């Protein structure tokens, strides 16, 4: 909960400055059918300001359809959408949203700089020349600004798509598989770029099959399966508590008790595994290690680990398909 505003306390109408900031995306009960194919089936979620939300799920799960409904590119059969606190069709909301579509093809006869200028104009925005150049540089296309897009590689076109999505300094960025065509270096660049957006309180809704990548940048995840939300939550909530594996020598009774006080303890030879509670504080591990050393334990290794998002995703999807066939 945010702080209680003076307006709320005095009973008067709060001034706009006191209003809590509306979420970047709010959607509820979205549904979409294509003939007999249900693409989106009662999907609801929120993307907060400055948050990176990952939309995950197998091919055909409804990720792109959901994104297109949010952006008003596809008409939903049911449900409501608010973008930046406004109805999705409101031009004021749309002007502050950047979008990289799943399938990108830019006018092959234009140069990269011209494509960017065209999209700025289409968005009704004004972006000064240096800012446009800087944007191309951010996606690694500084020296290709004057080259025709027709001669660009797939990855270079995707980089240009990212520049198009970011150039007008949007408050919400929606990226449908932003790194599908990028090399490992390009993916790392996008990761840094996303973290930079987060720092500026820009919200990001992102859809990717590269789970490791999602795990590194996303605050929260929504998993879709056959059009439905199969699971949703923060990474901590989805992946559960962390484990700590320690290789120790000279562990006496007092040290064993100290280890057990940190979480559920298992021992196999000189390897001790402690399952930490999900909400443990950041100091738990250094304090534990200090206490063990003070108790005369020789600490050879301390490795934190947890279930990977990839493993968790597979478990959730398998459980959901077993549920469907029962
Ligand atoms: N224009 C369309 N006409 C008919 N069916 C469609 C259309 N767009 C999507 N669908 C169907 O809706 C379902 C969801 O498709 P969608 O593109 O949203 O999946 P996705 O999760 O983005 O998959 P992918 O990971 O492959 O991109 C699929 O069964 C697809 O065939
Ligand atoms: Mg898709």
Automatic annotation (TrEMBL):
CDD domains: ABC_DR_subfamily_A
Protein's name in the database: ABC transporter ATP-binding protein
InterPro entries reported for this sequence: AAA+_ATPase, ABC_transporter-like_ATP-bd, ABC_transporter-like_CS, P-loop_NTPase
Protein family (similarity comment): Belongs to the ABC transporter superfamily.
GO molecular function, one term: ATP binding
Keyword Cell cycle carried by entry: no
Alphabetized Pfam families for the sequence: ABC_tran (PF00005)
Domain ABC transporter: 25-251
Domain of life: Bacteria
Keywords recorded for this protein, A-Z: ATP-binding, Nucleotide-binding, Transport
Keyword presence, ATP-binding: yes
């Amino acid at each position: 909960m945010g702080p209680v505003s003076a307006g709320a306390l005095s009973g008067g109408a709060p001034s706009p400055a006191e209003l809590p900031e509306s979420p970047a995306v709010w959607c509820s009960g979205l549904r979409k059918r294509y003939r007999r194919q249900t693409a989106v089936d009662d999907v609801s979620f929120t993307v907060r300001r400055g948050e990176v939300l990952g939309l995950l799920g197998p091919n055909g799960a409804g990720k792109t359809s959901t994104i297109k409904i949010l952006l008003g590119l596809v008409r939903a059969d049911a449900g409501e959408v608010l973008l930046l606190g406004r109805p999705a069709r409101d031009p004021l909301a749309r002007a502050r949203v950047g979008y990289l579509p799943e399938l990108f093809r830019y006018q092959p006869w234009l140069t990269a700089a011209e494509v960017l200028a065209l999209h700025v104009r289409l968005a009704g925005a004004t972006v000064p020349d240096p800012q446009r150049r800087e944007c191309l540089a951010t996606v690694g296309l500084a020296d290709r600004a004057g080259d025709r897009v027709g001669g660009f590689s797939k990855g270079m076109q995707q980089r240009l798509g990212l520049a198009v999505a970011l150039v007008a300094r949007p408050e919400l960025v929606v990226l449908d598989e932003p790194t599908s065509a990028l090399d490992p270096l390009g993916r790392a660049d996008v990761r840094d770029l996303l973290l930079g957006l987060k720092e500026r309180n820009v919200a990001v809704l992102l859809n990717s099959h590269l789970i490791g990548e999602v795990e590194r940048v996303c605050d929260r995840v929504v998993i879709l399966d056959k059009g439905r939300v199969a699971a949703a939550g923060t990474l901590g909530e989805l992946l559960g508590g962390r484990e700590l594996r320690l290789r120790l020598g000279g562990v006496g009774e007092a040290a064993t008790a100290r280890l057990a006080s940190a979480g559920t303890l298992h021992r196999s030879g000189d390897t001790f595994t402690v399952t930490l509670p999900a909400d443990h504080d950041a100091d738990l591990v250094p304090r534990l290690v200090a206490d063990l050393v003070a108790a005369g334990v020789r600490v050879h290794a301390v490795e934190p680990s947890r279930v990977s998002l990839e493993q968790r995703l597979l478990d959730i999807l398998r459980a959901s398909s077993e549920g469907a066939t029962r």
